[in-house]
Write a structure and sequence with these properties.
mainly beta, SH3 type barrels, five-stranded antiparallel β-sheet, 10% helix, 41% strand, globular
């Protein structure tokens, strides 16, 4: 028998990414010769295509020749999995409440907008 106890029944790659939900991550989305681009924010959701949703994010463009950084804040952003080169967590693990969808859990729907009955 396997001595590891899995938190979920998902494949191991997805369960490791599932552990990152709610943490601040750096998502490198393009790395060209002169410019690197990354999104920094809190991971809210992902899917099997590695599309990710970040909240309280920053779009950061780094010019490699002059080492200049341009940063612009974005409230909520969805990054397509095809464009993602790497994901990495940084900072301490935070157990913050993100949204009502986060409280609902995986596979549960929650009414939003005009309230619940």
């Amino acid at each position: 028998m396997d001595s590891k106890i899995s938190k979920t029944d998902l494949p191991s790659v997805f369960s490791r990414i599932l552990d990152l939900i709610g943490q601040d991550i750096i998502c490198l989305i393009s790395d060209k010769k002169k410019v690197a681009r990354q999104m920094i924010g809190r991971l809210v959701a992902f899917d099997r295509h590695m599309n990710v949703v970040l909240t309280d994010a920053f779009d950061e463009v780094i010019n490699k020749t002059t080492e200049q950084k341009q940063r612009r804040p974005i409230d909520v952003v969805m990054v397509r999995g095809v464009n993602i080169i790497s994901l990495s967590a940084y900072g301490s693990k935070q157990l913050a409440v993100l949204t009502s969808a986060r409280n609902a859990g995986i596979g549960k729907s929650v009414a939003a907008g005009r309230g619940t009955r």
